[in-house]
Design goal:
This protein has 312 residues and is mainly beta. Helix content is 10%, strand content 39%. The strands form 5 sheets. The protein has a 5-stranded mixed β-barrel with strand order 8-10-11-13-12. Strand 15 (186-192) and strand 16 (195-200) form a beta hairpin.
């Protein structure tokens, strides 16, 4: 039995090995101990120890709270999976994440005792790791798809694999998965009735109610939304070329890519990010009612130039 002894000047841990003496150690009771074994982190009470009752010892409230925290420390700080995997050995950490995989419970021998252990895999936005659930934790009612908070785990390295393992202080609770925010860049978009469909940079399609887009672009008229989305997709003009000459140029926007050259040029698509474009005007025409990005600026006249289209 673990107890914490509080004095007027401090606290230390008291481990009681003699079960017959358990009743003498109650919260709030005051005792005198003789023949204890001194340890670096406290004392041990054995069958040779004498426990004497005594008058109540007055202990300051803050020391009583320290004693309670010694026996029941707060959970270790919650870290990302990536941070947890890089924590120092024996340092307790807590993690949150989604269970992506589980293995069957098996039995291993620990000090000549059969002990249950089960491996699960936890993933968050930063990384994925294996967590070994020992003893009663192996029977915990959790499964793949559950979002869990696992406290007070420690690093374990075996055969060059770094994983986490439960401790006697560990608690496992299922909790709600926090909303995940993903930022995607739209290459273009088109209005389709009451919805708007976006072509995203990873070549996927996203459809959402048009009214949400209108809320996001409060200063853009409904009929201008398509062109606004297209023009806000930047292409950076890097090296305008006329014959053998090269000119410095500001960043320009190729608003419509392959049509309406008066909006900044025509861009021929290829599989790489480099594009060959033919420019026909001396500056980017700014259209009324359109929100332009900060990098939208004038550029010099040229027949050929090399541009880089981002978001494709």
């Amino acid at each position: 039995m673990d107890t914490a002894r509080a004095f007027t000047s401090g606290i230390h841990l008291c481990v009681v090995y003699d079960q017959t003496k358990f009743p003498r150690f109650k919260e709030g009771s005051s005792v005198i101990l003789r023949n204890v074994i001194k340890k670096p982190d406290g004392v041990a009470v054995t069958s040779n120890t004498k426990v004497f009752p005594c008058a109540e010892v007055s202990v300051p409230e803050h020391i009583v709270n320290q004693a309670k925290n010694l026996l029941h420390p707060p959970p270790a700080p919650t870290k990302t999976v990536s941070e947890a995997l890089n924590s120092p050995p024996k340092e307790r950490v807590s993690i949150k994440g989604t269970i992506t995989q589980e293995e069957a419970t098996r039995q291993v021998f620990v000090r000549e005792e059969r002990v249950n252990v089960k491996n699960i895999y936890i993933e968050d936005a930063t990384s994925k790791c294996k967590v070994a659930l020992w003893r009663s934790f192996a029977e915990k009612d959790i499964r793949p798809g559950d979002y869990v908070h696992i406290t007070d785990v420690v690093i374990n390295t075996f055969r060059n694999e770094v994983s986490l393992t439960t401790t006697s202080k560990t608690k496992i609770t299922k909790t709600d998965c926090p909303p995940e925010v993903k930022v995607k860049q739209a290459v273009s978009g088109c209005v389709d009735g009451e919805n708007m469909t976006f072509l995203l940079e990873d070549d996927t399609i996203l459809t959402m109610p048009l009214e949400l887009v209108e809320v996001a672009l409060p200063n853009v008229e409904k009929e201008e939304i398509e062109i606004n989305v297209a023009i806000n997709k930047p292409a950076y003009q890097q090296y305008p070329v006329r014959g053998e000459e090269r000119y410095e140029a500001g960043k320009a926007v190729d608003g419509r890519k392959s049509d309406l050259s008066s909006w900044g040029g025509q861009c021929t698509a290829s599989e790489s990010y480099k594009r060959t474009a033919t420019w026909t005007t001396t500056n980017n025409e700014r259209l009324p009612g359109v929100t332009y990005p900060d990098e939208y600026s004038d550029y010099v006249t040229s027949n050929l130039c090399e541009v880089e289209v981002y978001g494709e």
